[in-house]
Amino acid sequence: MEGQGISLNEKRTQKDYSLPFKLQVILEVEKGELTYKEAQRKYGIQGRSTVLVWLRNHGSLAWQTDNPMKGKQTPQTKIRELEKKLKRLQLQNEILNKAVEIADEQLGTDIRKKYLDLLSKSSGQQVLGDIQLD
Fold first, then answer.
1. Cα-Cα end-to-end distance for the chain
2. 127, 133, 62: which is closest to 101 by C-alpha?
3. For the whole model, what pTM was predicted?
4. For the segment 28-80, what is each residue's pLDDT rounded down to a tens digit?
5. Where are the domains of the chain?
6. How far apart are CA 8 and CA 36, in angstroms?
7. What is the Cα–Cα distance from 55 to 23, expressed in whole angstroms?
8. Which long-range CB contacts under 8 A does 60-66 form with residues at least 24 apart?
9. Cα(27)–Cα(30) distance, rounded to whole angstroms?
C-alpha cells in the first residue's frame, strides 16, 4: 500500500455509506428512536450535517431547511410597520393631550404642571420630550 501513497495508519477523511445503511439510519430517526445527532454518535457517522442531508434527500418527512428570511422582515416592511406605529402613537398622544386639556378646564386644575413637578422631584431629572405646556 505504500506505493499508492496511503499508509495503513492514515485515516480517510470521508466515508462512503451504502444506501441501505442510510435508509436504516433515516428510519430510526423518523420513528423517533434516535435524534439525528444520536444516530451520528451511535454509528460513528462523520460530519455534522451528514444525517440531515440523508434525511432531506431520502426521508419521508419534511426535513427541508426553512427559508432563512421566514419570519424576518425586509427593511422596507419594517419601516412601513414602524411608520404606522409612530402614526398611531402620535394620534394617541393627541387624544391624551386633549383629554388632559378637557379635564383641566372642567376641574380647574393644571394636571401637566403637577405631573411634571412630581416626576422631576421623584426622578431627580428634568423631563424632556413632547409634553406640551400650556
1. 95
2. 133
3. 0.39
4. 888 888 888 899 999 998 888 888 888 888 888 766 555 444 556 678 888 99
5. 16-65, 75-123
6. 31
7. 9
8. 60/30, 61/30
9. 5
Query: What is the greatest pairwise CA distance in the chain?
Result: 104
DSSP at 125:
S
Q: What is the DSSP letter of 120?
A: H
Q: What is the DSSP string of 23-62?
A: HHHHHHHHHTSS-HHHHHHHHT--SSSHHHHHHHHH-SS-
Going by C-alpha positions, the residue among 12, 17, 10 that lies closest to residue 50 is: 17
Determine the Cα–Cα distance for residues 101 and 93; give it in Å rounded to an integer: 12
Distance from the Cα of residue 65 to its chain's centroid: 15
Residue 59 burial (CB count, 10 A)? 20
